[in-house]
């Protein structure tokens, strides 16, 4: 695959290798056993890693290449990574994910891609009770969340109010970093609803040097995203709010971003930050790229170097309506034990 003039990963060979290894694992263990093993994802990933590395090496791909791509580039679209077979009706809520061959091979494929990226599959207890994978579907019933599930979604990074990796929340050092990668896998998408990806390098290209410096300053308040609000309120005693924060961050891996169009607040009298914020959102629209996921596809979105959203989904739910599954990957090297929950180590605080 060629991105910005650099050949990094052969996406077709990577997808084929992961698909083969995921299918072998499910066939060897059986559906019930592999579902239980996914409750200890790191252990399962370690057992499957040697076979995966060997399979990809025969295809001319190394784990280092996959890790480099996942960290350095805004996204990677892999086609036909799993077989979306034996599916029930599309669920009407984020959890649970029904255990069928299609959904289990999907989850094993994401687990393998996370390990290849040098990351651990993680969740946050404050979002959907800490479920490791969630359905992205049109919700049943009424209310703000159900309405939101039907409409478009502006560009955002997931868990935007949580700290960048390598930094701490100023009010509570136990709060774990936001994920490095968001994995999106398609089980159904018959209307071809696109996922939008807004690469950070494109956004920065539309900003002046002065605007970039403003966005690196501590002049923005980030509110917890809606899916985290109830959980953080229950765990922390109040919904998480990050005061006097910055949108852009300089790391050892380059410039990173955290942003949510609908959950950030700036001082209306601070002309510089208001102008920078407006221009930032304009350039998000200008550089947005549409990726249509077909059943069996997986999209890796770099949560530090891209924002993502989607087009309107529509009213249909259940049946054969749109059904994606999401997982999070994080480089947990050096992650303190106090940022995990005992007994469920993949679940992070809060």
Describe the structure concisely:
The protein has helices at 11-29, 31-37, 41-58, 63-72, 101-116, 144-150, 200-205, 209-216, 226-236, 271-287; strands at residues 2-3, 6-7, 75-78, 120-124, 134-136, 153-156, 181-188, 195-199, 220-223, 241-245, 248-251, 254-257, 264-265, 289-291, 298-302, 306-310, 323-330, 340-341, 344-348. The protein is of the alpha+beta class and 350 residues long.
Overview of this protein structure:
The structure is a single chain. With 350 residues, the chain is an alpha+beta fold. It has one domain (80-99, 120-348): Double-stranded beta-helix (4-Layer Sandwich). Helices cover 34% and strands 23% of the residues. The strands form five sheets. Strands 3, 4, 5, 7, 15, 17, 18 and 19 form an eight-stranded mixed β-sheet that branches. Helix 1 (11-29) packs across helix 3. It is globular. 44% of the residues are buried. Mean pLDDT is 95; it is low at 1-7.
């Amino acid at each position: 695959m060629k991105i910005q003039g650099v050949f990094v990963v052969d996406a077709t060979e990577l997808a084929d290798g992961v698909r083969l290894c995921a299918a072998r694992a499910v066939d060897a263990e059986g559906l019930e056993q592999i579902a239980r093993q996914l409750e200890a994802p790191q252990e399962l990933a370690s057992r499957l890693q040697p076979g995966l590395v060997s399979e990809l090496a025969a295809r001319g791909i190394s784990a280092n290449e996959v890790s480099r791509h996942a960290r350095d580039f805004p996204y990677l679209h892999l086609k036909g990574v799993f077989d979306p077979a034996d599916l029930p009706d599309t669920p009407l809520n984020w959890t649970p994910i029904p255990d069928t061959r299609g959904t289990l091979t999907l989850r094993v494929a994401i687990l393998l891609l996370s390990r290849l990226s040098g990351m651990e599959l993680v969740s946050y207890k404050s979002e959907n009770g800490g479920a490791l994978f969630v359905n992205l579907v049109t919700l049943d019933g009424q209310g703000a969340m159900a309405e939101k599930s039907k409409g478009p979604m502006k560009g955002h990074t997931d868990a935007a109010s949580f700290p960048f990796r390598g930094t701490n929340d100023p009010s509570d050092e136990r709060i774990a970093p936001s994920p490095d990668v968001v994995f999106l896998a398609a089980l159904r998408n018959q209307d071809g609803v696109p996922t939008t990806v807004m690469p950070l390098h494109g956004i920065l290209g539309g900003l002046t040097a002065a605007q970039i410096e403003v966005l690196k300053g501590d002049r923005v308040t980030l509110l917890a995203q809606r899916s985290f609000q109830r959980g953080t309120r229950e765990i922390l005693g109040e919904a998480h709010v990050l005061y006097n924060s910055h949108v852009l961050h300089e790391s050892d891996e380059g410039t990173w971003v955290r942003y949510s169009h609908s959950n950030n607040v700036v001082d209306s009298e601070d002309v510089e930050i208001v102008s920078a914020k407006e221009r930032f959102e304009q350039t998000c629209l200008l550089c947005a790229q549409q990726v249509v996921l077909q059943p069996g596809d997986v999209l890796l979105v770099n949560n530090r170097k891209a924002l993502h959203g989607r087009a309107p989904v529509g009213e249909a739910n259940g049946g054969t309506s749109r059904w994606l599954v999401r997982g999070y990957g994080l480089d947990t090297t050096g992650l303190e034990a106090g940022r995990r929950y005992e007994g469920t180590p993949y679940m992070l605080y809060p």
